[in-house]
Design brief:
The chain is elongated, with a radius of gyration of 37 Å. It is of the alpha+beta class and 345 residues long. Helix content is 57%, strand content 12%. Helix 5 crosses helix 8 and helix 9 runs antiparallel to helix 10. It folds into three domains: 66 residues; 179 residues, Bacterial polysaccharide co-polymerase-like (2-Layer Sandwich), CATH 3.30.1890; 75 residues.
Length: 345
C-alpha cells in the first residue's frame, strides 16, 4: 500500500483517507450544532451590517497647473517686474499640495461653511455632520451647534470642531495623487449621507483652491496694489499741474519782465515731469497686471461627483452570509483541533 511521510513516521494513505471520512461523519452528526451556529452567524452578521451600512463616495479629480518660469517671466524681468513663476520658491508643490487639503485650517474652514445641500436643507457642514457623528451623541456636546462665524465660538465649540476635524481626516477624507508624475489630485469623501459627502468634497476643493491661488499671487498682487496707489497719487498731481500751468498761461505777463515768467515755466516743467512719471507708472502697472494673470494658477476640475454616488463597503446580505460562513468555519476548525480521535476512527 502507498504511504506518505511527514517527518515523524510513515502514515498509510488509506488511513489518511479513512480519517477524513471519519471526520466527515462527525460533522454530519453535528448538523444541528452547525445549523444553529450558521443561524447565529447569519443574525450576527446581519446586525453588524445594519450598524455599518454602505457608505457613499464623492470623488473629485482636479488638475493643477504646475509651470516653471518661461519666456514671459524673462520678458517682464527686463522691466523690473518679478512674477516669480506660478509657484515661487516651490511652495505647495507635489506632496505639499496634497497635504494642504488635510490641514486643520482648510478642513475647519470647510466645516464652518454654511450652504444649501442638494436635498434642500440649509446649515453649516459641521452641524449636518453632527447628526450622524459619534461626537454629536456625547452628553458633553448635547445641544451644541457650530455656526459659520468662528469668532463667536466658545471653548466647548472649539473642542467639538477639533473632534470633527480628526474624524474627517481619519474616517471621511482621502487625498492622493493617482499618478505621481502628473499634476492630478484626487479628493474623496466617504460618508453615509450622500448629500453631505458630495458637499464636503466640493466645498473643500473650492476653499483650498482659493487659498492656493491667494498664496501664490500674494506677492505680485501686493506689488500691483503699490503701483496702483502710486499711479493714483501721480494722476492727482498731474491734474493739479495741469490747472497750475493753465492758470499761469492765462496771466497777461509783460514780455519785458522775464522774471515774471518763472512761475509759468516752473509749472510747465512740473507738468512735463508728471506726464513722464505717470506714463512710466501706467506701463509698469499694465506689466504687473500681466504678471498677476500669469502667476495665477489654473485649477481645472477633471471629474466631479454626480448622483448616484459610488457605494463602498459590503451590503447587508454579504455581511450576513459572511457571518454564517465565519461561524461555521471557526466551529469546524475548533472541532478538528479538540476531536483528533474522531478523524482517525
Amino acid at each position: 500500500m502507498e504511504t506518505t511521510t511527514n517527518g515523524l513516521g510513515m502514515i498509510s494513505l488509506g488511513a489518511y483517507v479513512k480519517g477524513w471520512k471519519g471526520f466527515g461523519r462527525v460533522l454530519l452528526s453535528k448538523w444541528k450544532t452547525l445549523t444553529l451556529l450558521a443561524c447565529l452567524g447569519l443574525i450576527g452578521g446581519g446586525i453588524w451590517g445594519y450598524l455599518h451600512p454602505q457608505k457613499h463616495q464623492a470623488r473629485m479629480l482636479i488638475a493643477v497647473e504646475d509651470d516653471d518660469s518661461n519666456g514671459w517671466q524673462n520678458l517682464l524681468s527686463q522691466f523690473g517686474i518679478d512674477v516669480g513663476g506660478n509657484n515661487p520658491g516651490g511652495i505647495f508643490k507635489g506632496e505639499s499640495l496634497v497635504r494642504l487639503f488635510k490641514t486643520r485650517s482648510r478642513v475647519e474652514s470647510m466645516l464652518a461653511l454654511e450652504m444649501t445641500f442638494d436635498d434642500g436643507k440649509t446649515s453649516t457642514i459641521a452641524d449636518r455632520m453632527l447628526a450622524s457623528s459619534k461626537h454629536g451623541k456625547k452628553s458633553i456636546f448635547e445641544g451644541v451647534h457650530l455656526p459659520a462665524d468662528r469668532s463667536q465660538y466658545t471653548p466647548l465649540q472649539d473642542s467639538l470642531m477639533a473632534e470633527l476635524y480628526q474624524e474627517v481626516i481619519t474616517e471621511i477624507l482621502s487625498v492622493d495623487k493617482p499618478e505621481r508624475k502628473l499634476s492630478l489630485i484626487e479628493v474623496s469623501c466617504i460618508h453615509e449621507d450622500k448629500y453631505l459627502a458630495k458637499s464636503m468634497s466640493e466645498a473643500l476643493v473650492a476653499q483650498t483652491s482659493n487659498f492656493y491661488v491667494d498664496v501664490l499671487t500674494k506677492k505680485t498682487r501686493s506689488n500691483l496694489d503699490v503701483l496702483q496707489r502710486e499711479a493714483d497719487s501721480v494722476r492727482i498731481a498731474l491734474y493739479d499741474n495741469l490747472n497750475a500751468s493753465a492758470s499761469s498761461t492765462d496771466l497777461n505777463v509783460n514780455p519785458n519782465r522775464a522774471s515774471l515768467l518763472v512761475n509759468q515755466n516752473r509749472a510747465l516743467v512740473e507738468l512735463q515731469i508728471s506726464v513722464s512719471l505717470y506714463g512710466e507708472l501706467i506701463k509698469n502697472l499694465k506689466l504687473a497686471e500681466i504678471g498677476v494673470r500669469k502667476q495665477t494658477p489654473i485649477i481645472q476640475i477633471a471629474d466631479e461627483p454626480t448622483f448616484p454616488l459610488q457605494r463602498t463597503g459590503l451590503k447587508l446580505w454579504q455581511w450576513a452570509l459572511g457571518g454564517a460562513l465565519g461561524a461555521v468555519a471557526v466551529y469546524i476548525f475548533l472541532l478538528s483541533l479538540f476531536a483528533p480521535n474522531s478523524t482517525k476512527s
